[in-house]
Amino acid sequence: MGTENQGTGRLRVAVAAPLSEENCARILELEPRIDLVVDHALLPPMRWPADFAGDPSWRRTPEQQRAFEAAIDSADALYGIPDVDPAALARAVRANPRLRWVHTMAAGGGGQVKAAELSTDELDRVLFTTSAGVHGAPLAEFAVLGVLAGAKGLPRLNRQQRDREWSGRWTMGQVSEQEVLVLGLGGIGRVVAQKLHALGATVIGTSRNNISVAGVAEVVHPDRLIDVAPAVDAVVNTLPGTSATEHLLDGRFFDALRPGASVVNVGRGTVIDEAALIDALRSGQVGFAALDVFEVEPLPADSPLWELDNVLVSPHTAALDAAEDRLIAELFAANATRLLDGRSLLNRVNTVEFY
Length: 355
What we know:
Blueprint: E1 11-15, H1 21-30, E2 34-37, H2 62-72, E3 77-79, H3 86-95, E4 101-103, H4 110-115, H5 120-125, E5 127-129, H6 136-151, H7 154-162, E6 179-183, H8 187-198, E7 202-206, E8 218-220, H9 225-228, E9 234-237, H10 251-256, E10 261-265, H11 274-283, E11 286-291, E12 311-313, H12 324-340
Parallel strand pairs: 1-2, 1-3, 3-4, 4-5, 6-7, 6-9, 7-8, 9-10, 10-11, 11-12
Helix pairs in contact: 1-12, 6-8
């Protein structure tokens, strides 16, 4: 992996993703040693906060594209992957030998770096960081929503309201009496665990390391998922999409779950075998699923997940928060300070497993 900048000096940063004037000023306020190269006319308009790909109908003229690439090729660092396009990232790395750091807007930016198919030497030369941690609080709230919705029988309530059915009363589940399995104890998983613990749930977390986390009663290795599944009332995935996590939650896992358990996904869609989940939802083995991410996005119109009444479909929007752009800018400034001071960067992408 790359080496940090040694000593002091200045850092020329090309803004390759939409960044407001206010957040440009915030970055320079926090780290005055940055020389920010930004031309807002060369960046696509955002349709909502953190819309770093911007309006898909927007296009640069050939002259604008040359100016955009010239700015990128003059920089020591990039704020964002150009056009959120792995091919554009590969071009930038190869065209600019002085480039040494790229900050990705996504918490799971490692997948975008992997898709650029850079050589070992290129991955060695350039540092890559992600915005992990910025999205922890809003994703944790969605996770709590999913666990509560499963415990309180949201599908049944929706069905009865739709049918104008006033049924007999029934006992709802109590999160305070449940065991919840949280996959991954990184920036998102830790916040999820804290919030569920505050509601009285017993939280089991997964990690490949021997760690202790506040609010987590037990930490198990991912290899032991099948062992703990029978005692679990709900599962929350916060893991990134890597070769090691692909289809970690498969038919074998769902079969082992306590019948009627809830499944919440705020990590990456590829962690769940969707075909196996659909089977489990249809059989009732999984009672409810709250999904913000999917194996294929946008979720295809013919996916059964759209029509299953025990599924809550969220279009990858649970992380979106009005403060996200500012928080990413502040994280970038903090890492710029670290780079200039010769310290290790936060949220380094592992360029072996790309998370």
